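Table S4 entry, Glycerol-3-phosphate dehydrogenase [NAD(P)+].
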Amino acid sequence: MLKQKKKITVVGGGSWATANIKMLADNVTEKEIFWWMRNEQAVEHLHKFNHNPHYLSSVEIKLPPENISTNLKALIQQADIVLLNVPAAFLKEAFAGITPADLAGKKVVSAIKGIVPDENQIIGEFLNQHYGISFNDFIVISGPCHAEEVALEKLSYLTIASGDLELAAEFAGMINTRYIKTNVSDDIYGTEYGAVLKNVYAIASGICHGVGYGDNFQAVLISNAIRELERFVDAVHPINRDIKESAYLGDLLVTAYSQFSRNRTFGNMIGKGYTVTSAQLEMNMIAEGYYAVNCLQQVNKQYKVNMPVCDAVYAILYQKRSPVIEMRNLAEKLS
Ligand SMILES: NC(=O)c1ccc[n+]([C@@H]2O[C@H](COP(=O)([O-])OP(=O)(O)OC[C@H]3O[C@@H](n4cnc5c(N)ncnc54)[C@H](O)[C@@H]3O)[C@@H](O)[C@H]2O)c1
Ligand SMILES: O=P(O)(O)OC[C@H](O)CO
């Protein structure tokens, strides 16, 4: 339980971190919010103008300037809750100077939808093994929710998962607003892996669109993807879960079909013939699924789940296989 603890440090300077700051600030529960980002110029801009210059720049940031800085250690030290929001690929880099002692006694929230490269661990596992954070002190924010729609205050639903359901409910109470509704879950593995996989399936969706498949095929692709997702999370963490819930199916649908999806946009460019590097350069944003599909290949060596959609995306992105041929081969395996 958090009880009187209510100093929150948000770690990361992208779209979702900005949206999380907005939700926390708009929520009426009394709290103090701190914000770390690595970019000094962006911090200076925020101090002067109260807007993030690079992401969701229309959102007004209602924090005192002194609460926003590039000094991660200091901001973590004073926090009761640390909310992580850098892409998984850069988490180790961001945490380079942070020790388990710095996080001792704190609750850690992950709004990241990715796997830590090289470790091949979801965020809960990584924090547990490298920083000693127990699943009862760990919270995941997930669900079908794009930062861009939070900025517009469009009604959105989030799932808050933790080993401690009371803690999950208490944290949910800190982000509920007129436009954010929450539900709680104890399925950390399913919630994290579901979010990781849906990013890969959104890349597949974008690739298919890019090479010319239509809506009819997309629907079959996503129908197969949710079954693949279920096979995988059941293999990794077999509990009784309903894969049709918003945290799993809902998140897959929004990412696979939304105009705001980074992963779908990235996949679409790959389908149209961009190289990985040129597609990444074209986007100011990060497609987590690119990093995740490589990690998933490693993780699945242990579970050996049949994952034709992930395999096709991996072959295209990491083995430089032709999107046209891989998608044609994949189409033969779908039903
Ligand atoms: N955007 C959303 O709607 C949304 C929703 C839910 C979850 N998430 C998750 O939030 C996390 C952050 O994604 P985002 O959408 O806010 O990012 P983004 O694509 O909006 O921004 C990219 C972020 O990555 C950082 N970055 C880029 N290169 C870097 C580097 N070399 N080293 C360190 N940091 C670097 C940038 O500073 C920026 O903060 C991801 O795990 C994503 O899956 C995003
Ligand atoms: O939906 P995308 O492709 O923008 O991915 C970013 C986050 O993972 C959203 O859930």
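Residues 156 and 249 are 15 Å apart (CA to CA).
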